[in-house]
Every structure is written in C-alpha cells, then in structure tokens.
C-alpha cells in the first residue's frame, strides 16, 4: 500500500511570505505529510515580496513558456522553484510579470483588494494545474489553502473535460482565518464563462465576497480541514450541512495534523503500488 501523492496549493508559506497563521500551517502540515511517507509537491504565487535572491529561486525552464488565455488575452506562465533546506521541501512558484513579478500581494498599500484579483486567482489556479500536468505528476489528492486558491476545483473539472490527467484526483480545502472585506472584481463570472465555465460554475461563484468564494470551494471539495479557531462559524456550519468530510479544529497541532492526515487516507482510499 502506498501513502499517496499530495499536491499542496497555498497562497502563502513561511518563510517565503510574511508570518501568519495560514503561512505557518502551509509549511508545517506538508512537512508532517512528507515525514509520514507521502510524496508531495507545493505550489504558491510568486508575489513580488518573495525575495528571489534571498530564497535562491530559479526558473524551471521545462515547465515555463506556455501561454494561458484569460479573458481572450495571452499571459505567459513562468514557473520558479525554491527550497526550504531545513525541511527538505521544494516549493514551486507560479509567476507572470503582469500579475505577480511587478506586483505586491493581494492588497494594495491602503489595504484594499487589488482590482484585478479576479484574473490573478484564475491565472494561479489554472497555472498550477497546467504546471503539474506538464510535470507528469498525477496527485491522488489536492489540498488547497487560502481564498486565493479557490479556483483550483473549478479548473480541475474544466481541465478534465479536455484531458483526463486528473481523473480520480480528490480535493480537500483547508479553512483558515483569512477573511477579507468587500468583493473581488464583478467581472469574474464573465471571465470564467469565457474560460469554459458551466451554468453550475457560474451559480456557485456568483457571489465574489469571501464567503461566496469559500462556499463554492467547499461545495466542490471532498473534505474540509478547519485549521484555525477563528474560521467563520457560518462556513464551518456550511461544510457540515453539505455533508463534507470535516476535520474540526483542535488546539493540539499534532492532533490536528494527525486527524487531517487520516482524512486524506479516508478520501483517497487504498492505493496499490507496483
């Protein structure tokens, strides 16, 4: 029996991004999974504050170079990689000059959402899965964390309509206290439709505030991990009401990691290796 291949998709990870509850979780839990014998890959956005020289990032030429069409425009996908030496973990970065290299994070200097976050999260979700497909590394399960990764399940279904590479891949969303105020660009629905969204997709992502995006992510996911005591209770209740496999928050990190790891086993099921 194998332990399975897990793809972690995160909007922030210590030490590449400023310290936060989400960033710490996205570093510590993959280490726990890897130490337990799982094969893992980690992807995150390459925001401009990710110091390329300090973190010794370099471009992965064999994965870079493809163009993604968003809103009828071509955007170059660049893949870079860095490592966390103390954890023996590599992290892949989704990059693009327009969306990431020359930009800050998710919010501007006044704390307001960046106006093109709709296209940026679409590019990140699709770019991650296209890069994984080009790696020829099929995950048994994708664990995505943070609202900026909420388009991963949409693109998982969208890509499988054209190519069955991800056939059988399950998804688990990790909820943290990353709620934002306001809504992202109201053109998200139109841009998703241009990119092949179905009527069901459009309905699920019709509300572009935090709760709307995360409820859509929960709806698409096979399981939910509540990784913070400050996750909105409405969102946790929504996961239970929709009968998702839920790991509720507990204060002991090792206990929470263990329960989350067991959730992966239950959702993936038996894995037979040659």
What is the N-to-C order of secondary-structure elements (H for helix, E for strand)? EHEEEEEEHHEHEHHHEHEH
Helix content: 25-40%
Second rung of CATH, namely the architecture of the domain at 5-39 and 118-268: 3-Layer(aba) Sandwich
| CATH topology term of the domain at 5-39 and 118-268 | Rossmann fold
Main beta sheet: strand number and arrangement? 9 strands, mixed
Which radius of gyration do the C-alpha atoms yield? Answer: 17 Å
Coarse morphology? globular
Strand order across the largest sheet: 3-6-7-2-1-8-9-10-11
**CATH top-level class of the domain at 5-39 and 118-268:** Alpha Beta
Question: What distance separates the N and C termini?
Answer: 9 Å
Strand content: 15-25%
**Overall pLDDT level:** 89
Low-confidence blocks of residues = none
Number of helices: 9
Write the layout of secondary structure elements.
Elements lengths: L4 E6 L10 H15 L3 E7 L12 E2 L7 E4 L2 E4 L1 E7 L4 E7 L1 H5 L15 H19 L5 E5 L6 H11 L7 E6 L12 H7 L4 H6 L5 H11 L2 E4 L6 H9 L3 E3 L5 H16 L6
Parallel strand pairs: 1-2, 1-8, 2-7, 8-9, 9-10, 10-11
Antiparallel strand pairs: 3-6, 4-5, 6-7
List the main descriptive attributes of the protein structure presented here.
9-stranded mixed β-sheet, alpha/beta, 274 residues, two-stranded antiparallel ribbon, single chain, 9 helices, Rossmann fold, 36% helix
